[in-house]
Every structure is written in structure tokens, then in C-alpha cells.
Amino acid sequence: MSESEVNSVISEANLKEFDWDHFKYERILSNNSSRKVVFILGSCFEMPAIVILEKISFTQEQFTTENDKENFIRNSKLEKIFKNDIYENNYCIVDANLNKMKTTIIFPATEKHINKYTEQECFTFQETPELYEKITLPHITSEKFTVDWVYNVLEHKKEKDRIIIEDLDSEIGFMLLPDLKWDGETKETLYVTAIIMNRNIKSIRELRQKHLPLLENVKTKSLQAIKEKYGLDSTQVRAYFHYQPSYYHLHVHFNYLNYDSPGIYCDKAHLLDTVINNIKLMSNYYEKATLNFVVRKNDKLYSLFSDAKN
Amino acid sequence: MSESEVNSVISEANLKEFDWDHFKYERILSNNSSRKVVFILGSCFEMPAIVILEKISFTQEQFTTENDKENFIRNSKLEKIFKNDIYENNYCIVDANLNKMKTTIIFPATEKHINKYTEQECFTFQETPELYEKITLPHITSEKFTVDWVYNVLEHKKEKDRIIIEDLDSEIGFMLLPDLKWDGETKETLYVTAIIMNRNIKSIRELRQKHLPLLENVKTKSLQAIKEKYGLDSTQVRAYFHYQPSYYHLHVHFNYLNYDSPGIYCDKAHLLDTVINNIKLMSNYYEKATLNFVVRKNDKLYSLFSDAKN
């Protein structure tokens, strides 16, 4: 189904909520077997739906709680596979309520979502300032990537009860929320995002010296809130931007340093500290810098940058 | 309990099998929240036991099977957390028998097992140019980290038959070799390292404008060799330095872009392209920059930088 076809029936589909009992499995888009996440494409009421199932990591609380009904060990049994000397392998069968999975539903899903979650080969390109002006910027503008869901958050229309802290200043303000990928509780996988109030900064590419107060404000207040609320010291937190970002409204990712969160690779993630330092060293750093970024083969930017190279 | 004490009671313990109902939880040794594996220390009949619980990855069969009792979708239900626009988050509660965990038991466990599975927490620090001079450089010098094995390679005393390409120029030369972590064959996990001939550059911290010809030479010739020998285009290769590096003799890591190789995180890996670009933008970038780095708690630099912070 094309994107326009999808859009034309979205109003109708909005009337219907996603219903798991009506979900029809179609195919696996990708399956990360080390992280135990699967991205499934299917349909619901004839509209495409993506279901992301992710097993949840363990918490200390599960093993230490004195509530018998919530104690992992008291509500599980072992099924022996084999034993060799001091080593033995088992399956562990756990009460279903103590072994939930995180499930994200995208409904109705568009071609873009399907592409995003389909496993594909990656390629790296160098974006010079000239290529940004000539290719990336027109691409962002013409594709009209919607950030309505960001505005819903910033206007308190959605997710208001999820806000960790907010600073409503239009220049240096931001809202800090748990990331969609986080369950909102487990310290070990902490992942929160600061969304900037200013609607005119698409990405780090547009950051200049005048934005230093904004960056410092986001850094200081977010780290302080993470410390107060989740007990993580600033030395235990990774704060970074993505380039290219998944949506072109400036935001900062924060997660627990010990957690190998997705998207923290050096060819995608730019540390907030480094960005601040670069601008301090050279006020027009992001106007002059050549920035590497990684795209997948069926991303529009792949063909645009491939053509420019040849 | 010491290793000898453990050994002295092993014969007695061998009479008793591990019993989950008698397992007493003591503490979590480590918890890998991205891979969803937890290493637990406890005891059983007063003997130390390690329990390794690992969630299992998804299989296509779970979603396609026509056996109703084994079908994931038909044996699970969703519990809504919140909904925003086309995105909604749920918990998924699955029949316990379709959601088993892999469980390895080590019983009785020794001190060695306990050490092996104990996690070291990571911390991030900002190394200003002043802190580099005051702490890092004296640390590198005083600890006399040996790089003899590097010199053995550069002098053709060791690993000569493993060299992929070499350029013996003392200023811009280097040798390219398969990394020890690579099997030397599988394209999907390609990992090769360029070791610089020049013995006077400890790390990126010492790179200056005069080193640009060296960096460009390593980049061009290595990428060309990787293309000719392993069929990977330069757009499919990730080239980067580590900071702090594991040894203080300048070297560049190259691996296949699709491969989540260890040590490619943004708080450790610095892209070769970015390093070249930074020096072109500002010839003394690495003399002036504040560089973030990550250390584990029992690393000497952890205590040195902690003390400096307080």
C-alpha cells in the first residue's frame, strides 16, 4: 500500500483502535537475536500494523522483593536439559505476569515505518556543508517529515503525565520524558529524551554559538533530574544527539552508561559534551564541519548521496 | 568462602544436586540489560551457586505455527500503557510455556567463577588539555605500558605473514593486519587494524596538522586494500580510533559497517574522518579539545580523575 493510500484511509482507521485479537501476522521485518527484539509486519482491520516485541531485562527487585507473588524465584520452575560436572542447563518457566514483554504498536503503519524497521545494509557518507545545503536540507524540507507528535508533547496535549521535568522558556527550555524504548522504571536500561522547546533547530547541523545557553541548560537540568529521580550520577550517564536524527526537531538522548542502548555508535551518535566543546572551540563548527552519517540502502538519502558521489 | 574451602566440600556437595527450591539469592554479579542476561550469585545447601538467566530470542516459527497451543499471538494478551497518535505502548503477557528462559547453573561455584561474572561499572570523565598534562600523560609515562608487541610487528619479527599491506615510510607509513578478534575470513565481522610506523604518537590527543598526510595515507591505502581483498566498498567500512586507547601507539580500527563490533560506542570511538576534519578546521584541535572517555571502576585512571574532580 502506498503512502498516499495509507494517508487516505487514516481518518477511517483512527476510528478503530488497534486490536491484538484481530492482528494478522504477515512477515518478520527484522529480528535482533542478541537484543531479543522482533519487528513484525501484519495488519489489523486491513490496515498495516507494525508490532515490536522486546523481552525486558532483569531487575534486582524481582529477586529481592518480599512480596511472594512477585518474587521471581518462588514463581518459577526449572526444566532440566543436561548436566555436565558442575554445569547444568535448564529452561526456566516463569509466571506469565512476572515475564511480560514490552510491545510497541504502530498503527496504521506507513511505508516509511516499514522501511525503517526492515533489515538492510548500511552505508556511510560524508556530508560537507555544501552537500547539506544542496541535498540534505531540500530533502528535509520537501519530505515534510511530520513532527506533530513532538508538538503534541510540547503543547501538553499528549504524554503530559510522563514529563520528568520541563522548562517552558522558548529559547533555552525543554521537556524531559522517558524514551518510547524505555519501560520507564528499570535503572539498568534508563533512556530519557530532552525535547527542545525552540521549534527552529532541525539538528546539530544548525547549532551555533547562540545556542550554548540552551545546550548547557539541557545538560545541567537533565543530569540533575536523572540524579534526583533515578539515582544516577552525571558520570554514569551518556548524553548525545543523533545525526542524521530520526526526526528533525532538536532532541538529546540520555541513557545509563553501562547500557548498550541502540544507536550509540560513533557513526551516528554525537556526545552532547563534544558538541558543546566544538562550538566553544569554533563558534561556527557545525556550519563548517563535514559530518559523517550512515544510511540504509532504501533510504532516500542513500540514492541522493550516491548520485552526488558519481 | 575461599577456593580451598569450596574444594574441600565439593565431594560432599556432589552428593546433592542443585535444587531451585532451595536456592537462596545473595546478589547480582552482573546484569546485561541489552542482551537480557543476568548473572546471580546465591547458595544452595550452604554451597555457592551461580545462576545465569537469559531471555530467549524470537523465532519465526512462534508466529507462523498452525498449532494453536504454540502460537504466540493466540496465547498472549496486551496490557495498554499509553497511546500517542499512531504509536502505542503495551505490555504483552504470554503463556509461560511459550516464554521460557535459558538457565545455566554452576554448582558449586568457585571464586574464579564469581570474579569472571562480576561486572565493573563504567564512568565517564572529561579530559581537558590541562587534565591530560596533569594526569593522563604522567600516568601513561609512569605505568610504562609496554608496546613491545607492536614493535615486533613493525620490525617484521612477529606476525609478518599476517600483514595485509604495508608502507614502510617512517613518517606516513603503516601496517595493516587482521585484528586478533577477527577470524580473518568472515566478511560480516571484518575487523582489521592499521598500526602506524611513527613511534612518537601516543594517541589522537597528540595529532596535529603535520600528521594530516599520515592520516590521509592510512585512510586511502587501507580502504583500497579492504576493497581489493575483501570486496567492501569504502562506504561500507567504519574507520576509527579509540580514546583512551588500549595501547599508546597510534592505530586505526577498520570494520564492516553492518557489524556491531565491540568498542564502537560514541564515548570511546572517534571516526578517522572526523579526526581529519577537525584538524583541517582547526590545526590545534586536539591540543585544545576536551575529550570524554569512559573507564571502569578498577582502572587507575578512574581513581585519578575522581580525585581530581573532588
From TrEMBL, chains A, B:
Subcellular localization is given as: Nucleus
EC id: 3.6.1.59
* GO annotations of cellular component type: nucleus; P-body
**Coiled coil regions, renumbered to chain:** none
Q: Where are the transmembrane segments?
A: none
The answer to keyword Hydrolase applying to this record is yes
**Principal subcellular localization:** nucleus
An example Gene Ontology molecular-function term: 5'-(N(7)-methyl 5'-triphosphoguanosine)-[mRNA] diphosphatase activity
Active site, renumbered: H251
Q: What keywords sit in the KW lines?
A: Hydrolase, mRNA processing, Nucleus
Q: Where does substrate bind?
A: 149, 159, 179, 181, 242-253
An example GO biological process term is: deadenylation-dependent decapping of nuclear-transcribed mRNA
The cross-references to InterPro entries, in alphabetical order and at most eight, read:
DcpS/DCS2, HIT-like_sf, Scavenger_mRNA_decap_enz_N
Q: Is Nucleus a UniProt keyword of this protein?
A: yes
Family per similarity comment: Belongs to the HIT family.
What's the protein name? Answer: m7GpppX diphosphatase
Q: Which organism is it from?
A: Polypedilum vanderplanki
